[in-house]
Amino acid sequence: MISNLKILLVDDDKIMLFLHEMFLKKSGILNDTVLCYNGLDALQYLDNYTSGETHFLVLLDINMPVMNGWEFLNAIAERPYVNRVHVVMVSSATEESEKKKALNYSQVIDYQQKPLNVESCGRIVHSEMLKGFFEDFTAE
Length: 140
Description:
Blueprint: E1 5-10, H1 14-26, E2 32-36, H2 39-48, E3 55-60, H3 69-76, E4 85-91, H4 96-103, E5 108-113, H5 118-125
Parallel strand pairs: 1-2, 1-3, 3-4, 4-5
Helix pairs in contact: 2-3
């Protein structure tokens, strides 16, 4: 596994953060994981991160207080690190329009329904955009 990928779990629901972190680990994804409770927390973390080599996989909820997922995506579009941020929207929204809107953002590589599970984590890992970050990953 390449170590220069950090995972940011961004959700205002602490139970969902716990579940998603557990499923990532159960899936064999042992990368560094950072928990953020809204988009602003995630944005501030990224803004203050100093290593220019690190890539970020952001598992992003849509509906959150302070800064929602859409506002986060708009905010990072102007950041110098935008090309190192790969976003998977993780939402309870089932409307096809939400998925289409999400996939219109160049940083968004996938859209998954909440909650994640081992199978959905496997789909994320095998995403073409993340090829090389999870070389040793084998789905159960």
